[in-house]
Amino acid sequence: MTLNNDKTKDTETDTDGNSNSTAVASTGSPEEAPADFDKAIEAAGFGRFNLILFVLAITATCANMFESTTMSYILPIAECDLHLTLTDKGVLNACAYAGMIISAIPWGYLSDTKGRRKVLVCGYFLTCICVLGSALSQNFIMLVTFKFLGGLMVNGPAAVLFTYLTELHGPKYRSHVLMVIGLITSLSLLLLPVMAWGIFPRDWGFVLFDSLEIHSWQIFLFVCAMPTLISGLFMTVLPESPKFLMSQGRNVQALRMLQRIYRINTGMPVDTYPIKSLVLEVPSRDAHKDEVIYTIDEKTGDKMGPVKRQSRSLLESLRAGMLQMRPMFHKPLLGLALQCFTMQFTIFMGLNTIRLWLPQLFSSMADYESQFAGEDVSASMCTILEYSVNKTAETLTNHEDACSVPKTISIDMYLNNIIVSACGVVGYLLAGSIIRLIGTKSLLTYGLFISGILGLTLYWSINSLMTIIVSSAFITVACISISSLMGAVVALFPTQLRSLVVAIAMMFGRLGALSGNLLFPVFIQIGCLPPFVMVALVMLIAAVLSILVPNPKKATFT
Questions:
Q1: What is the pLDDT of residues 435-461, one digit of tens each?
Q2: Are the beta carbons of 126 and 106 closer than 8 angstroms?
Q3: Measured between alpha carbons, how far is 310 from 308 in angstroms, rounded to an integer?
Q4: Could you tell me the CA-to-CA distances from 257 to 41, 44, 166, 237 in Å, in that order?
Q5: Cα 112–114–117 angle (5° rounding)?
Q6: Which of 19, 188, 337, 485 is 20 to 30 Å apart from 345, CA to CA?
């Protein structure tokens, strides 16, 4: 990226007649000189406004994670109400990811043309409607439809949230935003089994409007809709990203937003905000191949009118996006991109298959141990899977007898899921120290190999304690590996392609999660070994590919 301030001056010093330096507008006093975004957001300070953003991060991250994870907790208890087969359970776990995959490009277009705030407000309110619809669902088709629509809606705000939060923090705090969001993500996954523990055992069933039967699992979904509603309400009072406004040439509005942030953070009047004007980012010349350029024009706030970028059609935006993507289809980026996308697909396929099926496995384990309490029987993984398959088949073939007594879930199911989620939080807290000790690439490779071995080890689990230990270790190590992979992607790709590569990588990851959750119940019905061979195989494929990924510390791309 090249920042040009004075083209004539740069032409005198550069042999190619084009600037390749970073220049800062310097006429007038420092306070009068137009400021770039980083300088302007730093001048706004760090305080109450950032704490408000932290609260938004909590509710919004919970909303994002709940939408893709809640199904795994209601499957054991909604089995009788919805007449679910094993395949139905796989579809319910996967349908939200299908919606996310389909909506990735449209949401990205809306975010870059309509603004971050509009996507976050509309996205969370629409997601809330879909979650409430799923909570009122009376059959499998209704629930699948609303979960698919929920994935369709939540993908926009989920993708834009991180961009919005980072754009409202100065360079000093941006690296901490990723850490905070990652920690909140782990805590939100810990919150779900706690909420399930508090709601599912209650006898809260009733009939609404003389036609809608409401059970405890539907009340659980109602509660899970609250973070989306709160996040949408939060966003109605928060400002648009000043960075986005500057990218659209709307510097007057951007300056007003920065002044508002300054007043909230410091309590000082807006006229004491030290930045009086912002640089105007407009192209000054044709870019060279793979180059993005901007000019910093010295314009004061009084003279600066709202310069709006010419609107483009969706087709024109897609054509521009394809031109931006062109370098990714040539060496050396093509091979690297294919490696990263394949790794993301396989890691998500292994991780989310186990993660989303664990509540069902723990529920079957608790039922089995309760039914055969006092007998000398082994709760091995194969025994539990066979028991789960037979129990589901019995529920379908003899529904009245199997479901005559309300479904009760042992407390062990909730405790086991809480233990697994808590291990994930601890693992994330330790990840930073491990990365500093052995490096991102080593952690990625070793973590994936260990995950593959642990995935296969689940097959030989001989009791519930071993299942908890192995599954906790598998999910924790795999989650850390995903963080390492995304860190490597950011370091290895050129700046103008990083956001695009991350977005495509996440799309491949969701496709992997979708595939794994559809295949897992099919393999279970074939036999005990195939599902765990699938999980181990995809993790080991990712491990082998990670060996070929360049060390991010030695990356030459910028």
A1: 778 877 888 889 999 999 999 999 998
A2: no
A3: 6
A4: 10, 10, 15, 12
A5: 95
A6: 188
